[in-house]
Write a structure and sequence with these properties.
Blueprint: E1 7-13, H1 17-28, E2 35-42, H2 48-58, E3 62-67, H3 72-81, E4 87-90
Parallel strand pairs: 1-2, 1-4, 2-3
């Protein structure tokens, strides 16, 4: 990938597995296709890992990181430190993007 136009979408997630699929589906439906999505499990006790890994197995642009619970700011920064894009899009695990975002 050429990082000159890559958008890194950073999704910290703490016990929001019930919303995560809908959030990821909104990323997958983007008309702009040059992105990576990094999901950071911030010590969730729900099904966040199972959902995230299911998407990782189906799309190489989706990546999964895990850490002990340290809060959304630390999780977001962890994702950003692992991002390959020149542009960063922070996205909460319970948010949805419009297809042309």
């Amino acid at each position: 990938m050429n990082n000159a136009s890559l958008v890194s979408i950073i999704i910290p997630c703490f016990n929001q597995g019930m919303y995560l699929s809908e959030t990821i589906e909104s990323v997958l439906s983007q008309t702009y296709r040059y992105w990576e999505c990094i999901i950071i499990n911030d010590g969730s006790a729900d099904n966040t890992e199972e959902i995230a890994l299911g998407y990782c197995n189906n799309d190489e642009r989706i990546k999964y990181l895990k850490q002990d619970n340290k809060g959304p700011c630390v999780a977001r920064n962890y994702g950003i430190s692992n991002a390959g894009g020149i542009y960063i899009l922070p996205l909460d695990a319970d948010d949805i993007l419009g297809k042309d975002y």
